[in-house]
Amino acid sequence: MPELPEVETVRRGLEPALVGERLSKVTIRRPDLRFAFPPRFASRLAGARILELRRRGKFLIADLDSRESLIVHLGMTGRFLIEGTPAAEGSGSASLAKHAHVVFETDDARIIFEDARRFGFMDLTLTARLPDHPRLASLGPEPFDDIFAEPYLAKAFTGRRQGVKTMLLDQAVVAGLGNIYASEALHRARIAPEKPAGAIGKAARSRITPAVRAVLEEAIAAGGSTLRDFAAANGSPGYFQHSFRVYGRGGEPCGNRGCRGRIRRTVQAGRATYHCPLCQK
DNA sequence: ACCACTACCTGAAGGC
DNA sequence: TGCCTTCAGGTAGTGG
Question: What is the mean pLDDT of each run of 10 residues along chain A (281 residues)?
């Protein structure tokens, strides 16, 4: 499910329910997601107040007044639902869904983490140690960081024969892109996804940053994309999926100005990839 | 170091 | 309706 725009949408949806609030109770309903929860996960969280909710790549990070930070990755199917408490809601809260694995309670709400496939994970670490956390330490720059520009890509791509789309999926190269937005960005940049990264010229390389930023900005503004059942924490779906130009559009006409090509679906590094063979070179 | 491939887990959707 | 196969936005680990 979630790439950078969806994670950012979730972050914004959770912010009002969590930031400044104290976690009165946390319950885990199984010992692991993708990985085991860290020791005493629930008790370390209970009683802590959330100071800030941030995003790094596809990670959510909640800084707590206990000097620890909660790290959350949504995997493919992770999502948060916000419910008012029984008292606030009157009718009482609905029973938990089958894949509701973690329940966070504040004075005002219940925030439920569901993850059918359990590719998500959570961890706790001292806030001061966040930069050293193994899952965060290897992340590349944020797409909106100044450093994410042509000279950086030139360095990252040098000598690499791997397709540029696969490189953009590498979170160590740039943090937050996933299968959809990598395809979309390369279509906008008119670069073939399977083109070896090291073989891309400077002019084309210069088109990558603006293309990536444009598609991410538009997607965030649209509240992310809704495929299957993804929904923001407030329950409203994103609608950027209607703005996909290539993803899931095999056989359809290419939308790039002046191009008469048709979008093709291929498989690259085991992932579905969409591009226009005519205008993406 | 690099790169291709597999595994992880469940549900939805399509073909028959 | 039901069974079977394929596919899915994620990362991590293995082995060449």
Answer: 91 95 98 97 98 97 98 95 70 77 96 95 97 95 98 97 97 97 97 97 98 97 77 66 93 94 93 96 96
> CB pairs under 8 A, 24+ apart, for A237-243?
A238/A5, A238/A6, A238/A9, A240/A5, A243/A218, A243/A219
Catalytic residue (choose from A55, A58, A188, A249): A58
Of the residues A104, A132, A160, the one at which a domain ends: A132
CATH number of the domain encompassing residue A167: 1.10.8.50
**Confidence at residue A227, expressed as pLDDT on a 0 to 100 scale:** 74
Confirm whether A271 is a catalytic residue. Answer: yes
* A112 and A64 fall within a common domain: yes
**C1'-nearest nucleotide to the CA of A76:** C10
Same domain, A17 and A120: yes
Q: Which of A22, A49, A264, A271 is catalytic?
A: A271
A190 and A270: one domain? Answer: yes
- Which domain, by its residues, includes A246? 150-275
Q: Please indicate whether residue A58 is annotated as part of the active site.
A: yes
A192 shares its domain with A257:
yes
